[in-house]
Amino acid sequence: xxxxxxxxxxxxxxxxxxxxxxxxxxxxxxxxxxxxxxxxxxxxxxxxxxxxxxxxxxxxxxxxxxxxxxxxxxxxxxxxxxxxxxxxxxxxxxxxxxxxxxxxxxxxxxxxxxxxxxxxxxxxxxxxxxxxxxxxxxxxxxxxxxxxxxxxxxxxxxxxxxxxxxxxxxxxxxxxxxxxxxxxxxxxxxxxxxxxxxxxxxxxxxxxxxxxxxxxxxxxxxxxxxxxxxxxxxxxxxxxxxxxxxxxxxxxxxxxxxxxxxxxxxxxxxxxxxxxxxxxxxxxxxxxxxxxxxxxxxxxxxxxxxxxxxxxxxxxxxxxxxxxxxxxxxxxxxxxxxxxxxxxxxxxxxxxxxxxxxxxxxxxxxxxxxxxxxxxx
Length: 377
Ligand code: PMP
Prior knowledge:
- Helices cover 41% and strands 13% of the residues.
- Helix 4 runs parallel beside helix 10.
- 4'-deoxy-4'-aminopyridoxal-5'-phosphate (PMP) binds next to helix 5.
């Protein structure tokens, strides 16, 4: 059957390719996946079960249940974000749908979307599916993989229409605080860029609280904040996320959403509401566990002599590796049974690095780092 050109031109995800290799091998420890090894907190699961028992199996309002939107509005006040649940919040099927909706609703074919790299793998393909051009903006280990106004200017982003990024960052674990965000916000205002700020890892920071670019002067009106339940609440399979944006942007996103998705999964909406109402302690326990693992993995890589930038968010570290990262990752997998993702799949600046996820139990992290050490020897 004929396949659409724009899809034919999009290569399959480099991460998937690695998982397929890992699945085919025996006794593999995977530090490759970008999802929590925890289950969702029990109270959230219980709310989902209860909703099913009560026969809550219908569609919800397109924008999501009103109580959930109110809950999200309250939840994001911890980041000083102030959004009206009626007109400025839309509930989506994962942050993934929010990324897709942002592109399809707010970017025109032929527009240019600046994508800092190394980057989460979905942004460039989603922008291209919306007919946009992608402008890579390299970030560098020397700058702690932070996005700077200089990098934006050097890449030519002054002529772009939009910018999409995530901090805390996947794949590097970098975070940007308010002082780091200010020059980026100034650049966006000066050059009239729409900003899509993927803040799905906002709750997973280890050096201080998360700052959102949308709180900076003049930024709320040009920013879509993307959030979700997959990471902090360990709810990847429930598929629940949201976008916060000015009313006209939410209205536009809802127009696409109402024809393509109708509403986010109902069971997940009940789970999500309970998660934000009562699961702060469970989230904090998971965050502390990630932090212990993060310190352990960083110190082990440094002991091995691998340069490892101090990741302060999400659940990834991004050490340098000797030689070609794809070859390194492939040999590590076949010789020692440890799956990591080569940095080059995340775009420019990722080469010569590995993305290592520490959303894995301590025993596996100990064994995997011992194997990596043996492999390096
Ligand atoms: N954004 C980033 C930066 C991610 O790492 C991920 C998950 N890997 C997503 C979005 C997608 O999350 P969701 O499960 O909510 O669609």
